[in-house]
Design a protein that fits this description.
Number of helices: 7
Shape: elongated
Order of helices and strands: HEHEHEEEEEEEHHEHEHE
Number of strands: 12
Structural class: alpha/beta
Amino acid sequence: MAGFVRRCGYGGFSILPFGPRLAPEYLSGDYFELYRHTARKAAELGVTLSLYDEYGFPSGSGGWVNADGVPRFANRYPDLTLKRLDKIEEELDGGAVYDRPLSDAGTLMAVVAMETSDKRRIDLSDRIADGRIVWQVPDGRWKVMQFVCVEDPDRNMDYLSADAARAYIEMTHEAYYGRMPEEFGTTITGTFFDEPTLYRAEGRCWTPSFNDDFVRAYGSSPTLPCGTISVPKRLRPGTRCSRCGPSSTRRPIPSSSASGAGRTERWPPDIRTTRSARIRSARRPT
């Protein structure tokens, strides 16, 4: 570290735990002792440290991907992992009564009927009673779609859940802060997150609270899909209408804790961090 500072003029660095042979074990007592020693050495050299919040990448699992394969977040918070929006659809002609049970595959988010030629949409929420959809179908050819939020096998955190974000901050940033609070705001001046993206879960990331959060934020319901597209059986990522598709919707960001860990909205004007150091394994200094 000292050599890089002298020869290259580095103003700061970041530690990126990576690979299956990391030592000490990620988030263990020895790991934090080594990290604290590194932070103190950085302070001696007058450089800053940007806290990377993951083992491997992307951020959100605690070591499941590009690491030792242990899904630490899922093991600790199994109800807060990634969710996916699925669709169950059926086409029928008008003039009859549609009477079908609700899907039990997951949490129901919406039931929508769309006329296949002119793309008219009808929210069928008020046609649900006693676990069934009962609807007098108008003339035309109609597609009835149930949208359900289901568990995805991806072991990363639910990126659209404020509760999951708070839990992840508690598991990572707060754990660092609890062991070296004196370094935060002085030597540790920022944090780095890697690819918490919504292309996971087959491009259909969702969360059970999405509809309620959307209404609170925008004053309208996300229930009706775009009338300008023919909705495929597998919803595709990159939906362009702000009313449908998680990739176009802002989500609430949990505020940082009283300790200040996890704060990302304010950055000191003199941060000079220019490079990240990838550390595949490390030994505690003697």
